[in-house]
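Section 3.1 - Work completed
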Amino acid sequence: MGFNDILKKSFIQTATEGMSIGNAVLALAITCLIAIYIFFIYRVMTRKAFYSKSFNISLVALSLITAAIILSIQSSVVISLGMVGALSIVRFRTAVKEPMDLVFLFWSISVGIICGAGLFVIAIFASLLITAVVLALQNVPSAKESMLLIVDSANIDGEEEIMETVEKYSTHSKVKSRNMDAKSLNMVIEVKIKEGAECIREMNRLEGMRHVSMVSQEGEATF
């Protein structure tokens, strides 16, 4: 028996004998069930936000594809080397805008890997644990969002009075921008405020006040 025969028997035939069609079908079936579970969890969690059905369907397909790849790698060393070469040239350029979408992507891939390895109990338990943790944290009340207070005043010396009024109603405030010329003062102030309407009414009574508006803060707050 030559070296080539020993290599073929040790690496190729042994790996193929360890993988039966029944085990592969069982792994894909359990992967499909867990992926459908992820499909419904994603639908429930995004009911108040932007929901993409195509992205949700891709989560199910991604789990099945990953499981199939893992099963193929287990069946043959030659196939595993081919998979490494094929996947190394794949480039994903689609931007993931929502952080939770990224979580579901990794969740789907992980389910495919774990089920492809035959560790079904871990995949089921991890999926249930992830669901419980994410739903529990989602129900934790968040801090009050900051707002942007936009002020347009004809009194260029009225900044001190404006800030005193803001601090009267706001727990935190920070001047984001300040524009001034010979006839006007424009300010954008980031605030956390409870009685926004009352604050705006009082600011409109200030000397030289021409316009006051309050808009929601997009992005991260500075406090």
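Second construct:
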Amino acid sequence: MSETRTGGAPAATRGRLPHAALTGLFLAGFISILTECLPAGLLTEISRTLDTSVALTGQIVTIYALATALAAIPFSRVTAAWSRRTVLLLALGAVAVANVLTAVSTDYTLTMVIRFVAGLGTGLIWPLLGGYAARLAPEGRQGRAIAIALAGTPLGLALGVPLGTWLSAFGGWQTAFWAAVALIVLTMVWVLGWLPDLPGQRVTDRFTVRKVLAIPGLRTILFALTAYMVAHNIVYTYVTDFLGYAHMECQAGWVLFAFGVTSVLSVVVVGSHIDHHLRKLVVGSTVLFAAAVLVLAVFAGAPALVYVAAAAWGFAFGSSPSLFVGAAITASREASDVAQSITITVFSASIALGGFLGGLLIADLGTASITWAALVLLAAAAAAVIGGKRHAFPAG
């Protein structure tokens, strides 16, 4: 194997990003979030197989996110000294096996257990990606490397539901999970061939969770991330309900397509500027997202404006994982591995919490309430981002 593929230093020395290696990290992130979101567009079919209600079946998405949130910190600490590629391959293998078992299961309780195990695997994958990418990148280009590695997350969120629905047309909902298994196997082959192995970093008392949380700026970053992601998931989880409220249920696919296209565009645009303009990009993302939700809240009866708002929302959200993880890595420096595991815990918990709160809001206050609740949260996120100029989101 060539020098380029056996360590991170050569790429850094040459000053070029190791795109083949970063592609492996991108694929790992993509398949993780794809596995989480895949059932969302297949709930009716899966509920028939499992002989449960759609509402109960929907909890196979929630339990996945919950497992990821629970696993991120303890699993990251247990495996901190292991080689990074070994951890990634083990986690991908666990998710692949879980997807196989999900595809053949006809029992609801067993499926919930399997999905919980799959979420544990993702709890190992997500905290790895940002730090792995940063260590592979040359000095001054870590932000762009992180953006590439984490781009799979928004793409998985944007494409998971429509992709699963489309694949199910070729042989039932199980086809979507078999396709995911095939993609995981291909990802593992790519990782073995092109991702340099890096040594782990043994956890010491210097970097306990309590001490890392005391790092100036990190709690502000986590608060802003929580408000931002809960707001996103309150609306995104129930976007089809909102479009029904807006009398656009037949256009749901096209609205989600607009969201997905601009999410991809966001990854490209932000990745080119993240190393030098992180603060401006985080502020812009938060404010643009809030503006998009305000349009959805006020102009739900205007289809053209709903499309514009969905596109703006996608552009704002597309690179948000890269922005917040990049901010956490910058703030925590040597403790970045622990900081990332905390960030991923918050990220995953926010997915579960957003879905839960959105359901309560719709049941008690009606569908329109989810946009106003999201707007309040985004106002809080914007205040934290704009106010965190010294440590959390510094200029320059």
